[in-house]
Automatic annotation (TrEMBL):
Entry superkingdom: Eukaryota
Name of this protein: Heterokaryon incompatibility domain-containing protein
Naturally occurring in which organism (per UniProt): Decorospora gaudefroyi
Length: 214
């Protein structure tokens, strides 16, 4: 068994041959109707051959949807972890992941333990601006929308839009990923959705949010 995955450069690549069931990672599967120009295993040995077939768009759709689900679920994965180990490239790390897990332990790049979220709460607050109450587990919906946006003001991401997408979990919203829209447009979509969620939806606001999310 082999699975396709999206590499860091955006291309689709094969995993190694998976033989044992315990080696199978979480994966998504596509249900579709077989057409005349479907991509088969040999086609994917040469990506240009695969891309020339109509069926390739189905594969790209599945990969993009899986990435969307992963980003929308990332905050929940951190939140549900028993413990998070944060290996820092430097002490002044602005990672949003400190918010989600109940237990976070910080280590230097050399593996030296620096402390945990409780013992370092004042330092984390000073570096990130995240309120201590939020770090210690208070409901994030109680905090001002603008303040929550500021938590990621200095966050560095490979794709500029990810600077907005990484905030989805903090606002408990699910929005489509539109790479190429630019960070400001992504932030504006998120800001509108977050404000509507904070205020509670009227019928008109619900319709407006549905348009944003479509």
């Amino acid at each position: 068994m082999r699975l396709l995955y999206t590499a860091s450069d955006g291309t689709l690549k094969w995993t190694k041959d998976i033989i044992r069931s315990e080696e199978i990672p979480p994966y998504a599967i596509l249900s579709h109707t077989w057409g005349e120009q479907e991509v088969v295993f040999d086609d994917l040995k040469d990506i240009r051959t695969a891309q020339s077939k109509e069926g390739y768009r189905k594969i790209r759709f599945c990969a993009q949807q899986a990435k969307l689900d992963a980003i929308n679920s990332m905050f929940r994965w951190y939140r549900d972890a028993e413990r998070c180990y944060a290996l820092l490239s430097d002490v002044e790390n602005d990672s949003l992941e400190v918010l989600a897990p109940h237990s976070v332990e910080f280590f230097s790049k050399d593996g030296a333990r620096l402390g945990d979220k409780e013992s370092l709460k004042h330092t984390i607050h000073e570096v990130t601006g995240i309120p201590i109450e939020a770090l210690l587990g208070s409901d994030l919906s109680k905090f001002d929308v603008a303040k929550r946006f500021s938590y990621a003001a200095n966050r560095q991401t490979t794709e500029e839009e990810d600077g907005a997408y990484c905030l989805f979990g903090i606002f408990s919203v699910h929005l489509p990923l539109i790479y190429g829209e630019g960070k400001e447009n992504a932030l504006e979509r998120l800001r509108t959705a977050a404000i509507l969620k904070k205020k509670g939806y009227s019928h008109d606001q619900k319709e407006r949010l549905d348009k944003i999310c479509s």
